[in-house]
Amino acid sequence: MSTKRPKPRKNEPVFEERDTDIVECGDCPATCCHNLSITILKPTNRHEEQELLWHLNYDTVRVYIQNKRWHVYVKGRCMYLNDKNLCTIYDNRFDKCRNHMPPSCERFTTWYDKMFTTREELQKYFDSERRKRSRKRAKQKAAKAK
Question: What is d(CA 111, CA 41) in angstroms, rounded to the nearest whole number?
Answer without folding.
Answer: 18
